[in-house]
Amino acid sequence: MSTNVKIFSCTASKYLGDKIAESFGIKSGKVSVLRFSDGEFQPSFEETVRGDVVFIVQSTFPPADNLMELLLLVDAAKRASAKTIVAVMPYFGLARQDRKDKPRVSIGSKLVANLLTAAGVDRIVTMDLHADQIQGFFEVPVDHLFASTIFLPYIKNMGLKDPVVAAPDTGGTKRANAYAKFLNCDLAISYKQRKVANKVENMTVIGDVVDKNVILIDDIIDTAGTLTKAADIMMDMGAKSVNAFITHPVLSGPAYDRIEKSKLEALYVTDTIPLRKESDKIKVLSVADIFASVLNGVVNYESISSHFIV
Hints:
Elements: E1 5-9, H1 14-24, E2 31-35, E3 41-45, E4 53-57, H2 65-79, E5 84-89, H3 108-119, E6 123-127, E7 142-145, H4 148-158, E8 163-167, H5 173-183, E9 186-196, E10 199-206, E11 213-221, H6 225-236, E12 241-249, H7 255-261, E13 266-270, E14 282-285, H8 288-299
Parallel strand pairs: 1-4, 4-5, 5-6, 6-7, 8-9, 8-11, 11-12, 12-13, 13-14
Antiparallel strand pairs: 2-3, 9-10
Helix pairs in contact: 1-8
């Protein structure tokens, strides 16, 4: 007897889950959420999942209810006798809390891994973790995808002359270097200093950007302070243009205003997180097809390494 495959979406990622299911070739499963007057909620599957391979799509960006809804649905699938439960987390929230960077703080991403495992998840599929070592926080397989599969072909088709890949901070050097090697171009690095979180005190650029078309690469754009400051400095240093390719558009606080006022030509992001509002400078590239292809590989025990360009 063949195993049924079903793809369900939590509330915050239904827009993406529906696209993944369509690309996979099936209809999204039915989920309902009962909400109580005090804010408590109870999600439930509105169709059988007994003996099925169940994929649950949810990016766990704030509020924390998004993570809680995913955990509740994983638990519901386990109690409904699903054969395999896979959490598809295009954006893995709390990934920036991957270590103790000061005394008396939690390691949030490890806690999330423990919660998902305790809920009953059998596998994780995610994209561009803020820190690669988060994969090791799980005792179940983790398929870690990269937005470079989408970004690099797009960048090559742009036909930019004299390109240089840049990291907006030293933490993104490894990722930017991989792009630079693939595109066979030079690398620049922005060095920033902070006294408090989300506020850049000063920044310098290491590398030659004069008369270059700069491609800024990073995994997360939050308040956009670092990115826009890097773009402005590079333009002031003589760059021809600055385009940014960032996987996860968190875009909190003053991010949209900063992007609009910056010298950034365009910001390219994926749809792992929905945009709060539209902007002429922000272009969205969908990850639905790559996730659908990987889910197909998971179901059929096929290699997914072809999706890893860098």
